[in-house]
Description:
Layout: E1 2-7, H1 10-20, E2 27-32, E3 42-43, H2 51-60, E4 65-68, H3 71-76, H4 78-84, E5 89-90, H5 98-101, H6 103-113, E6 120-123, H7 126-136, E7 140-144, E8 153-156, H8 159-171, E9 177-180, E10 187-195, E11 199-201, E12 206-207, E13 210-212, E14 216-219, E15 224-227, H9 236-254, E16 260-270, E17 273-280, H10 287-294, H11 299-307, E18 323-330, H12 347-351, E19 356-360, E20 363-365, E21 371-373, E22 377-385, H13 388-399
Parallel strand pairs: 1-2, 1-4, 2-3, 4-5
Antiparallel strand pairs: 6-9, 7-8, 7-9, 10-11, 10-16, 12-15, 13-14, 15-18, 16-17, 18-22, 19-22, 20-21
Helix pairs in contact: 1-10, 2-4, 6-9, 7-8
Family: Belongs to the GARS family.
Pfam families: GARS_A, GARS_C, GARS_N
Cofactor: Mg(2+); Mn(2+)
Amino acid sequence: xxxxxxxxxxxxxxxxxxxxxxxxxxxxxxxxxxxxxxELGELVALxxxxxxxxxxxxxxxxxxxxxxxxEAPLVAGVGQALREAGVPVFGPDTExxxxxxSKAFAKDVMAAAGVPTAEARVxxxxxxxxxxxxxxxxxxxxxxxxxxxxxxxxxxSDYDEALEHGRKCLEQQGGQVLIEEYLDGPEVSLFxxxxxxxxxxxxxxxxxxxxxxxxxxxxxxxxxxYSPLTWVPDGLxxxxxxxxxxxxxxxxxxxxxxxxxxxxxxxxxxxxxxxxVEFNVxxxxxxxxxxxxxxxxxxxxxxxxxxxxxxxxxxxxEWAEDAAVTVVLAANGYxxxxxTGGVITGIDAAESVPDAYLIHAGTKLNEDGDLxxxxxxxxxxxxxxxxxxxxxxxxxxxIKALHLEGSHYRSDIAASMDAPTA
Length: 422
């Protein structure tokens, strides 16, 4: 099997590891990739946002499956271009990708499908924002309508901060912002693989969004994750499929825009029951690292089945009993004033820790061949263990071996078996 993987972050590095580990994968082409992925496949220096370039590459190299990692190419229609050229694609078309591209659209779909979610107001001017904040009350939840790389949400008890974030969102392209009711209770991430009609859930994970220990600081793309979640109700993945994912997939099919790819269900287990916080249309980072670390079934087979509409013919997924923990190393100043370019050392020492490995996210090689930080979330360490505590200890042993001036990481990832509430 020849596979084309689009993306250059930690999510794509984790996908590349799992794809390459399958003996059926003969070639793995990665556009554009990062230094950590170079040993897993062939890095191709093209723009993953260029649909025609991706089509030309896929046809020239006889690609059997295209896997699109980031949300931006999906929303821009790269998956659609590949699919129209006859290439099986794991990832939704432009219209279906609006489940992430527009939170207002996602709310409309959920309303039509009867999916439980937070009450929300879609606002197009500051007066409406102010009225919605007053109506729904504190803590205030203010969300950018469009793509924001996981950093478009502000949860605060400060009215002025909430209003200011609303103003900034209105100034962005599209000019819409969502004000939502605050959802109490722990949050859970659940990935669902979809082929337009059938839905197969993966195992649940927990993501830590805030920048600093104790759930403080601004929201980020994610500072760490762990799986499994022993505290969630039995049968949660199956319940999410029944109550959330399947109704959404059915509604998208009814609208003539079938959803094929990964439906990321961000959930809150509230005192009033299960609620959807948000949808994404691709694997989440860093949850992908811990979920795929535990998957024992063939990832290429699973993704190809989704791309070709044959998920209902796949055997049940198999999972390792081991736990997995991922901790993210962030660049100096991330997420507010990220400073890149610093040299990263300690790679060999970190990789020598048993049952731990590095995932590259924001790295590149400079002119001297040194590995340097090129993004906000630079590296993450994923470790496996017989339980969460064991995996956590190995992950922290490895990340402590890394050095990047001014960098930071949270010291409390998976320290408690309760999920963060914001």
